Amino acid sequence: MTAAIRAEVRKILTTRLWWALMLAMVASVALLAGALALAVALGGQSAGDELSIPPDQLALTVYSAGVTLGYVFPVAFGAIVVTQEFRHRTIQTAVLAEPRRTRVAIAKLIATVPFALAYGVASSAAALAAGAPALALAGDGAMLDDPATWRTLGLGTVAMAAWMLVGVGFGTLVTNQVAVVVGLIVWTQIVEPLVRIGLGYWETAAPVARFLPGAAGEAVAGASFYSASGLSDLLPVWAGLAVLLAYGLVAAAIGWRTSFRRDLT
Questions:
Q1: Which positions, given as ranges, span the membrane (predicted)?
Q2: Mean pLDDT over all residues of the chain?
Q3: Average pLDDT of 141-165?
């Protein structure tokens, strides 16, 4: 098993994709966090006033920017880790070297863990580096002396790491790389935000929004733009993590029973 994990790590490290996507994520999260904070700092009427977000909640919203929108990068990378084998037809070589496909799948999952943590740390660091100076400029302060700030940053790291593992699950389910990556982008950036906003105005169905994958990820961090602005409630941290990982586990289980066990030609 150790040899299989080592082989999977080498496969990831031999391409530029892992760090290229990380750099794109860092730039995206920094831009989002900085823009939100600067809108408050430099706007004629602060976004915080418009949305009735208290200063402490505004800080948590800025520092959780990666979990709110930047999670598309780790989830896409997790899917690519699996699907690139099928796209480049190297899966045949992988199962010839290790015929037990269960071990191959588990090795891929374990091999992504250090990269998942790296993405999580990079996301939180980007939000902090871009958001803290702008929040300080706004006059309300960066809230770096508040334990809740560091809790959000730490749990945000966990949430981003969990998203990469979810991506591995969806990559196992949908082995077509283009289909799964496009599907994840469309869902995370367009479909789910619209669904959550719509459900936020429908009182009866509003609680359902808490169980959507994006909302579950935000629940792990304990803060988000949606919750701070009153558009969506969040689950407890433990429940959010359980729901988020459940999406990945269910997708992986279905994929294992279907596409991953299919005959290779």
A1: 20-42, 62-82, 109-138, 158-187, 235-256
A2: 85
A3: 92
